[in-house]
Design the sequence.
């Protein structure tokens, strides 16, 4: 009887378990492709450049990515400088299937208009992106 109890409580949990160590950073990544929603509300060139770099990487992994520009984020096309080529990242992002939407209220308050790369959207558009995606990232 003691042997059966020992087996059930101590050995059974180890039967069939894998003893391999997972690759760091890959533990919770599912096999299915992700739908990633990104909200960019910064007008810091490095931050926006990195946000679109990440979006481009995710697209290269086969994921779907949608970006909503909110607040200062609607200024993203004006952030290009010698060190951070934001527009190059944005162009690559849209050419590879990424979608960008810009808050109409935020554009209006800055006396700006939407563009071909960053068309006008609304809070409904941001809501739809958040509802659509598996993961939300903010920059």
Sequence:
């Amino acid at each position: 009887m003691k042997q059966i109890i020992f087996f059930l409580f101590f050995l059974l949990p180890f039967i069939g378990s894998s003893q391999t160590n997972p690759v760091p950073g890959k533990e919770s990544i599912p096999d299915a492709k992700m739908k990633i929603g990104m909200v960019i509300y910064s007008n810091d060139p490095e931050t926006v450049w990195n946000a679109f770099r990440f979006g481009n990487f995710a697209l290269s992994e086969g994921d779907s990515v949608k970006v909503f520009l909110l607040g200062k984020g609607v200024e993203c096309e004006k952030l290009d400088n010698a060190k951070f080529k934001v527009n190059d990242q944005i162009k690559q992002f849209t050419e590879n299937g990424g979608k960008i939407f810009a808050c109409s209220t935020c554009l209006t308050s800055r006396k700006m208009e939407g563009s071909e790369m960053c068309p006008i959207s609304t809070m409904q558009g941001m809501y739809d992106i958040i509802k659509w995606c598996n993961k939300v990232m903010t920059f």
About this structure: The longest strand covers residues 35-40. Confidence is low (pLDDT under 50) at residues 16-21.
